[in-house]
Design brief:
- With 187 residues, the chain is α+β, with helices and mostly antiparallel strands.
- It has two domains: 30 residues; 145 residues, no CATH class.
- 34% of the residues lie in helices and 20% in strands.
- The strands form two sheets. A five-stranded antiparallel β-sheet has the order 1-2-3-4-5. It has a two-stranded parallel ribbon with strand order 6-7.
- The longest helix has 28 residues.
- The protein is elongated.
- The chain starts with a helix and ends with a helix.
- The model has no long low-confidence stretch (mean pLDDT 90).
Length: 187
């Protein structure tokens, strides 16, 4: 009987020790990156809002905004001149395949949009990274709708051919940014 129990006890002891070592190693080496602006993100901030000092707002209410950080906004980035941009991750064809930075004008309209990272289908969904498509959101201040044909209303943007889901994902991020900016009590 002991010959069957001994290997189970030894294996359980080894597993427990290895798990404890992994936990200790993780806790010793963990670096919180939630308040850090990565190189890719900084590049997009400068592209959309120009050179300057940027910081991530961690306590929205303490910074004077009417709301706390919504779940669907990854980061609020504030430039030293007071202008802001939202980092928002949405789903296109792939779940959470679009990581966007959306800069806002003081009046609540879109100043500019840039893709920080994209994991959509190469050659199809990645077409939403085209400057002409992203620039079509500039100046929009109300909820935007994606249409398949030429836009008729000013809040409509034509989908990228072959990338309708990805186009709708970008529009979703734009709508989140516009609504969040309104709720912040800035515009």
């Amino acid at each position: 009987m002991m010959k069957y129990i001994k290997p189970v006890i030894v294996l359980s002891l080894i597993t427990t020790i290895v798990s404890a070592l992994l936990i200790v190693t993780y806790n010793l080496t963990y670096v919180d990156t939630s308040g850090i602006i990565t190189d890719e993100l900084m590049e997009k901030c400068v592209y959309l809002m120009g050179e300057g000092d940027y910081s991530i707002v961690t306590d929205w209410k303490a910074d004077g905004y009417a709301i706390d950080k919504p779940e669907n906004v990854e980061k609020l980035i504030k430039k030293s001149d007071g202008s802001v941009a939202f980092q928002i991750v949405t789903s296109g064809y792939n779940k959470n395949g679009l990581d966007l930075l959306i800069a806002m004008n003081d009046d609540g309209t879109i100043k500019g949009t840039a893709i920080v990272s994209i994991s959509e289908t190469p050659g199809l969904g990645t077409k939403v990274n085209d400057a002409a498509f992203l620039d079509s959101f500039t100046g929009i201040g109300d909820a935007v709708a994606i249409v398949k044909n030429a836009p008729v209303n000013e809040n409509e943007v034509q989908a990228v051919t072959g990338a309708t889901y990805s186009s709708k994902g970008v529009a979703e991020a734009i709508n989140i940014a516009i609504e969040t900016y309104r709720e912040m009590g800035v515009a």
